[in-house]
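Entry 12.
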Amino acid sequence: MRATRAIIHLGNLAHNIQAIRGFVKPGVQICAAVKADAYGHGAVECSKRLLAEGVNVLAVATVGEGLELRKAGISCPILLLSLCAPEEIEEAVREDITPLVFDREYIGLFATAAGKLGKEGYSVHIAVDSGMGRIGCLPEDAGKIARMVANSRKLTIGGTCTHFALSDGTSQEAQEYTLLQYKNFLKAIDNIRNEGLDPGLRHCCASAASLTHAEMQLDMVRPGIILYGYYADEVDREYLYKLGTPLDLRPVMTLETEVSAIRHFSKGMSVGYGRTWIAEEDTDIAVLPVGYGDGLLRHWAACGLAVAIGGKTYPIRGRVCMDQCMVDLGSGSSVRRWDKAVIFGCKADGALKDADDIARATGTISYEITSCITRRVPRDFVE
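Predicted 3D structure (tokens):
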């Protein structure tokens, strides 16, 4: 058992999905985003719990992520949100992983693979670029793309989707742009129907829009970061409270380690690579066996970050190393070797900061903080 580990609270995951369900209209399906190893939380175990809580579909970003779920015995629909290489397509079709398509070549590749494997009516979702500028056909081309799918004779339209660029913003500009994208998406749906075709499941709301735009939920929503206990950027706890729709989310991950050594440093001694921190007075330094190889970032000390030990915070000193970091205990600390140190997570585990706090201090988002925790950190799944 390694001292550094991520505690994954499946009970908190269950709490979050049920809280989110309160925002979802009856009859609307839920597609849970479990890409990037469930944002670092462990895709297989999280997926199994989410399905037990009534989730309908799982979403991944790579064929490999979908295969991992299939090998674990998960048989529900799996939606592939990103594009894959030609050599991955046959495996995706064989394992019934549903792709997004939006151009002739990609549709042809999947149709060919479906024919080779004897798959009739293989489901694909049409991706529409309503203003994100990433993948998808333009709204005015959606009918033409849908007709290509129908004419392939091997594929069927299982759904049509888009992704919002600013739905997690609260400014008037953000709200107006989200509405514009939504209207563009509805035009795409109309163009598909004008071809005499069924667009299938219509979905456009990820975390933020699922909570703030009930009218845009259509047939399915795709929550992501909110499953794992964090709000979607500006659509945070305070904003939702002001809207009169409070949402209580609980962090699912706690990242913790242990003090592996305590060393006394005299005034003038330095810590770590580059000698970026030099003791201004006598102090004790604790060594923690966790570093950027585990998902911490090298510059965290420069951002003023600290860890929690015994209910108190102790600042990181010097550059974070690949496998270790050092924290300043000061003089006369009660901290002892092998004491638990918590980087971020649940208060019940002794954390004094969560991934949002880390993100604000380092100029990023909670998604990146949890997703960066590498697979060499064991995940302990608990209630």
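Annotation: The chain has a mean pLDDT of 97. The radius of gyration is 24 Å.
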